[in-house]
Structure prediction request, 148 residues.
Amino acid sequence: MEEKIHLIQQLKSLLDERIYFAQKALETIRESKTKETKSSVGDKFETGRAMLQREEDKNYIQWSLLKELKLKLSTIQLQRNSIVGFGSLVTTNEGKYFIAIGIGKFKVAKQIYFVISPDSPIGKLLIGKLEGDYITFNKKKMEILKIE
Prediction:
């Protein structure tokens, strides 16, 4: 259980950092938009504002998605389940998988975790499985050794 708690804390820290930088990028873009002044060449001004608006929209979407991921992470129940589901930390003979949010390969200390969404291809294979069950992914047979 300690391992799972530590992993969640590290993921929250990562998301907090990404949210911070996305917020700073939004603030910088908004500042640039207010400083943009109309030049003698009107098209240049409009093009610049349009580019800033696209950049702002893109950063806002990224910021929103990061906030959503953090919210999802906070809904994870810490009790141990015997069946793989959302929030499970699954140890297999091929590695450790945390069924939560789609982050991918994530290293904490010297341990590598695959932080995956339940909707990912391997997540779909793992959901509903028990300790001792097998799945085949990318032509590799994996045994579920432990579920936390």
Observations:
- The chain has a mean pLDDT of 90.
- The chain is about 50% helix and 20% strand.
